[in-house]
């Protein structure tokens, strides 16, 4: 059976990505596809426990990075790889680009070490690296995202960071785009919701998946 389709959603907190994950799942299911909607950190019982720790307990940047990759390994093994091997679609709210952006850009953790962990965690039996087929990167000025979040929800360890942290996170994302431009579709997140949704659909349609 053909390999499935792996799409990740990325952006700084408040960029407005989450509401489009379910909408895209519905659109793809409408085409008869089987779709798994999942998220990182999380997506399995173990990884959700690691998520609760990573989002709420104080820890140093190496511990934080290792927890993200530990959660990712379990998620890949238990959920993502089996679904893709069955030829299904996986929509994942954040994946490894978030680690490079938040732990690399935001926390300043060594990106060469992150790249090593990425290889260990995402290597397939044939030696190639598992990556999303498409990453939708929602781009927005950190000040606008912060205004949105101020009225939206109680902040976790990341969301409570100052605007300068999110500027560094955005730079981390930009470096990932430079490293693999063909994998990314950059979506202007500061548009009205309908325009953002149209851009999401256009990116997926451009790949022939909608
Ligand atoms: N295009 C948009 N314009 C204005 N507000 C938005 C838009 N998209 C999302 N929001 C609001 O911004 C906040 C953050 O959105 P959310 O989808 O949770 O962002 P993310 O998942 O990227 O952190 C929510 O209160 C949401 O209702
Ligand atoms: C996947 C991942 C997320 N994160 C952070 C980014 C987010 O602030 C947080 C959780 O992401 P997210 O699910 O987008 O948060 P919410 O449900 O509140 O919208 O985890 C990392 O720091 N590194 C990672 O590798």
Layout of SSEs?
Elements: E1 5-11, H1 18-29, E2 35-39, H2 45-56, H3 61-85, E3 89-93, H4 96-106, H5 111-122, E4 134-139, H6 142-150, H7 163-179, E5 184-188, H8 193-206
The structure holds adenosine-5'-diphosphate and thymidine-5'-diphosphate.
Residues 11, 13-19, 138, 148, 152, 192-193, 196 line the site of adenosine-5'-diphosphate (ADP).
Catalytic activity: dTMP + ATP = dTDP + ADP
Domain Thymidylate kinase-like: 9-196
GO molecular function, one term: dTMP kinase activity
Architecture overview:
This protein has 210 residues and is of the alpha/beta class. Helices cover 53% and strands 13% of the residues. It is built from eight helices and five strands. A five-stranded parallel β-sheet has the order 2-3-1-4-5, sandwiched between helices. The protein is globular, with a radius of gyration of 16 Å. The mean pLDDT is 96.
Tell me the major beta sheet: 5 strands, parallel
Query: What structural category arises from helix and sheet content?
Result: alpha/beta
Give the C-alpha Rg: 16 Å
Q: What's the total helix number?
A: 8
Instruction: Report the β-strand fraction as a percent range.
Output: 5-15%
Please write the string of helix (H) and strand (E) elements: EHEHHEHHEHHEH
Determine the mean pLDDT. 96
In spatial order, strands of the major sheet run 2-3-1-4-5
Helix content: 40-55%
**N-to-C span:** 20 Å
């Amino acid at each position: 059976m053909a390999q499935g389709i792996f799409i990740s959603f990325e952006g700084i907190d408040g960029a407005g990505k989450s509401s489009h994950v379910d909408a895209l799942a519905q659109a793809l299911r409408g085409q008869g596809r089987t779709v798994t909607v999942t998220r990182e950190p999380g997506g399995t019982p173990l990884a959700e426990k690691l998520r609760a720790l990573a989002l709420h307990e104080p820890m140093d940047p190496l511990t934080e990075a290792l927890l993200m990759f530990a959660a990712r390994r379990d998620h890949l093994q238990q959920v993502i790889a089996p679904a893709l091997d069955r030829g299904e679609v996986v929509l994942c709210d954040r994946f490894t680009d978030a680690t490079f952006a938040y732990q690399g850009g935001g926390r300043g953790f060594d990106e060469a070490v992150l790249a090593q962990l990425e290889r260990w965690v995402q290597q397939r039996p044939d030696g190639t690296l598992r990556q999303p087929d498409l990453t939708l990167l929602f781009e927005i000025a950190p000040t606008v995202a912060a205004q949105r979040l101020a009225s939206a929800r109680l902040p976790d360890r990341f969301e409570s960071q100052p605007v300068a942290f999110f500027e560094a996170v955005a730079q981390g994302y930009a470096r990932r785009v430079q490293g693999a431009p063909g994998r990314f579709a950059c979506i202007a997140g500061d548009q009205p919701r309908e325009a953002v949704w149209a851009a999401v659909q256009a990116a997926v349609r451009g790949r022939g998946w909608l």
